[in-house]
Structure formats: structure tokens, C-alpha cells
Design a protein that fits this description.
The protein is of the alpha/beta class. It has a single domain (5-104), classed as Oxidized Rhodanese, domain 1 (3-Layer(aba) Sandwich). Strand 5 (60-63), helix 4 (69-79) and strand 6 (85-88) form a beta-alpha-beta unit. 38% of the residues lie in helices and 19% in strands. Its main location: cytoplasm.
Length: 109
């Protein structure tokens, strides 16, 4: 299994402020109802395009509901060549509780 690190919302916020990319692997409706500001929805349909156009050296934070599914996705993305991959502990639910002002709605982002 490829290397990734588990990080807290506070560590993720610091990485975000330094330009890290955030991807959200939850279902489309959950993403539309609320997600980390600036995050990108990632699913089986968008995965290939994302990997093809991504900067593999940019820090990448993977978010899910509670921080469980994101670990498998983070390991997969690390295996695809991303050099710095993180799984968000507590997922979007802990993020929203910690940074309610750093969330957005709709799939516009």
C-alpha cells in the first residue's frame, strides 16, 4: 500500500492556506449539500481526468464523510504518483464542526 499521512482539520487548514488541493470523495448529493471551500468532487467518473491534469507534486488532501473511506482513496492516489497525499481525519463532518465558515454548498466549485 502506498504512503499517505492522516492529518487533523487544523493541519489540513494550514496546508490549504499554502495551496494544497482538496478532493472530496463523498456522493454528489452530499458534496452539493456542503463541502470544504475550494474542494473538488472526485468520483469514478472524474478520477481519470483529475489524475491526468493534476500536479502530482502538489499536496493533496482527501476528504470523505468521517475519515475512513478517504484512507483507501489516499493510498490509491499515492500509488498513482502523487507525492504528498493526506487523508483528513474526521472527514467533512469534523471539518464542518471545526471550520463552519470554510464550507460551501452546490457543485459550482
Amino acid at each position: 500500500m502506498s504512503e499517505f499521512k492522516r492529518i487533523s482539520p487544523q493541519q489540513a487548514q494550514e496546508l490549504r492556506s499554502n495551496g494544497a488541493v482538496v478532493v472530496d470523495i463523498r456522493d454528489p448529493q452530499s458534496f452539493a449539500n456542503g463541502h470544504i471551500s475550494g474542494s473538488r468532487h472526485l468520483d469514478n467518473h472524474s478520477l481519470h481526468d483529475f489524475i491526468t491534469h493534476a500536479d502530482l507534486d502538489a499536496p493533496l488532501i482527501v476528504s470523505c464523510y468521517h475519515g475512513n473511506s478517504s484512507q483507501g482513496a489516499a493510498a490509491y492516489l499515492a500509488g498513482q504518483g502523487f507525492s504528498e497525499v493526506y487523508s483528513l481525519d474526521g472527514g467533512f463532518e469534523l471539518w464542518r464542526a471545526t471550520y463552519p465558515g470554510e464550507t460551501a454548498q452546490s457543485s459550482e466549485e
